[in-house]
Amino acid sequence: MSRSRARAVTALTLLLATTACTAGHQESPTGHPTAPPSATRQAGQLTLPLDAYASSTAETYAVEDAQDILMRRCMNDRGLEWKPLPRVSAQDIEPPNAGRYGAVEADAADFGYHPRPEPASVVRRNRAWDEREALPAEVQHAAYGTSGKGGCLKAAQRQLAGDTAPPDYHAFNQLTGTALEAARRAPEVRSAVRSWRTCMAKAGFDYEDPLAVAGSRRWETADPTSTERDTARTDVACQRSTKVMTAWAAAEIRIQRRLIKENADRLDEAKARKDRWLAAARRVLNRADG
Questions:
Q1: Cα–Cα 20 to 30 A to 43, which of 91, 125, 138, 140?
Q2: How many other C-beta atoms can be found within 10 angstroms of the C-beta atom of residue 202?
Q3: How far apart are CA 110 and CA 101, in angstroms?
Q4: 231 CB contacts (<8 Å, ≥6 apart)?
Q5: Which parts of the chain have pLDDT scores under 50?
Q6: Rounded CA gap, 213 and 255, in Å?
């Protein structure tokens, strides 16, 4: 791991179960939906009970930005410059569950199963991370120490959260993947998927379910092909007509609530740590922003 990728060792690096990201890539919701979203609404509106126990992309950025402010002060005290990361616009942050059940967005016809181009503010931030790879050794050492976790990074983390340990998202990662797969096998979801398969077959496509088509190795090309776009367009239409997402979300909400009750101690501890880090980060940012 490169030292300048400090986000890889910050307290709130976003961790998602790989099974939850089959088709794509969070402001973390605070409440649970009372009913599953309609399949005709964008997946960006989908919230799940376990979302409250992990750090959203927006929250991860907030901690990174606050930590960066504290690192800059530390570096300046050592007579070194430290260029802060560019902020990411709120409108450029993807929702937490986009692509969780496959491609359901209208722009699948344009991008197929490929990710959409990164927004400008995300590109600027990634470029700034890349620039830190080329910092002089003296600056790298002051920022990250010899281990990549020391120096001003360690000082900033201690100043930010004191003795509060970084959250452990192992329970979230494990449970969100378990819930996705359990819901995938639920009778109502299997019934909806059968209808989806019939719809896809009428257009000449043969796939097991929306995750299988979204994750097909056929789409591992530099750019979306016409076949990929046609498949995605049909996929989205079939998902909406058969209400696969509605059934899958309803099943997963039910399963996640059960898992939360069964794992309350582990999840509550992780959430408490996350909330303390986030509250501290917001105080730093509020002071910095006046």
A1: 125
A2: 10
A3: 19
A4: 112, 113, 205, 213
A5: 1-42
A6: 24
Closest to 157 (Cα-Cα) out of 9, 58, 279: 9
Euclidean distance between the first and the last CA atom of the chain, given in angstroms as a whole number: 35
- Outline where the chain has alpha helix (H): 57-77, 108-111, 120-133, 137-144, 151-161, 170-184, 187-202, 210-214, 226-242, 244-262, 264-288
**What does the block give as tokens for 161?**
């959260």
What is the distance of C-alpha 76 from the center of its chain?
Answer: 33
DSSP code of residue 48: -
pLDDT recorded at residue 280:
96
Residue 74, CA distances (Å) to 79, 144, 154, 281 in order: 9, 11, 10, 16
Half-sphere exposure in the Cβ direction for 224 (13 Å, CA): 20
Please count the CA atoms within 13 angstroms of the CA of 173 that sit on its side-chain side: 10
pLDDT of residue 43: 56
Q: One-letter amino acid identity for 161?
A: A
* Residue 43 structure tokens: 């997946």
Domain ranges of the chain: 1-10+53-96+112-163, 167-269
What does each C-alpha distance from 217 to 23, 114, 118, 170, 200 come to in angstroms? 12, 11, 22, 28, 18
Predicted pLDDT of residue 44: 62
Residues 191-211 have pLDDT tens digits of: 999 999 999 999 999 999 999
Condensed to tens digits (0 to 9), the pLDDT of residues 125-162 reads 999 999 999 999 999 999 999 999 999 999 999 999 99
Place of tokens 């197929």: 112
**Separation CA 243–CA 201 (nearest Å):** 17
